[in-house]
Structures are given as structure tokens and as C-alpha cells.
Design a protein that fits this description.
By secondary structure, this protein is of the alpha/beta class. 23% of the residues lie in helices and 27% in strands. It has helices at residues 55-65, 78-86, 101-109, and strands spanning 2-8, 27-34, 37-45, 70-73, 90-93, 115-116. It has a 6-stranded mixed beta sheet, covered by helices on one side.
């Protein structure tokens, strides 16, 4: 069983657009996979989004507190990268551009997303 976190817009869920910036996302959509089948979808509001400091670190804790061991994301700030590394959360690079959560999960299931170092996803700290 795998639990994957995906930063999402608004209320999250399979039919929502993936949010490109990890710490600033509106919500996290957590996908539970068992034998490559979606068995559960859970959405948690990103309470870290409105913070002025440590947004990425707090968001990483939300991911871990919801038992996700994998994260699919486009962009991270340096604090988020360090926090994800320390929490042993594997990161996968999401493609650029608008994509629905369900389409991103389909790419993951087809093996089209590459695991990457969270350091490779770092952008300007203000983008966190």
C-alpha cells in the first residue's frame, strides 16, 4: 500500500488541478494505492499556506502526519526540501503546466514520473 500526497487547488480531489507550489497549495490530495488501484482519496486543507515563515516545513509535516511516504510536486522551496528529506518522503517530479490530480496519478501508475531528489525541485524561496 502506498499513500501519495499531491498539492492541489481549492478543495482538492481527483478532479482538481494540481497546484505547482508545494507550500502555498490550497489543499493536499492524498491518494491511497493498493496493487496499483486507488482505494482511498482524502483531502486535507493546507493550514501552512497562510503562514509567513516555515510554510514549506509545516506543509511537509502535514504530508507526513497523513502517512504519505511519496509526494508528487513541481516546485519546492529550500526549507520544504530539507524537511521532506529529513522526513524520508520520496519526491516525484510533476510535469509543468495544468494537470488534473487523476491524470497525474495515472502518469505515476504508468511509471511516467521519475523519482527525484527534492533538491532538484528547489526554486526561489518566495515560491515555496
Amino acid at each position: 500500500m502506498d499513500i501519495i500526497a499531491i498539492p492541489s487547488h481549492r478543495k482538492g480531489g481527483l478532479n482538481e488541478i494540481v497546484y505547482p507550489k508545494f507550500g502555498k497549495c490550497d489543499s493536499f490530495t492524498f491518494i491511497t494505492l493498493d496493487n496499483n488501484e486507488i482505494t482511498q482519496v482524502k483531502v486535507i486543507e493546507n493550514s501552512a499556506a497562510e503562514e509567513t515563515r516555515s510554510r514549506g516545513t509545516l506543509a511537509a509535516k502535514i504530508v507526513r502526519n497523513n502517512r504519505a511516504e511519496k509526494l508528487i510536486v513541481s516546485k519546492l522551496g529550500p526549507n520544504a526540501s530539507m524537511a521532506l528529506n529529513s522526513l524520508k518522503i520520496k519526491t516525484y517530479r510533476a510535469p509543468a503546466g495544468k494537470i488534473l490530480v487523476k491524470d497525474l496519478v495515472a502518469l505515476y501508475l504508468k511509471g511516467k514520473l521519475k523519482i527525484t531528489s527534492s533538491k532538484d525541485l528547489i526554486v526561489d524561496p518566495d515560491q515555496e
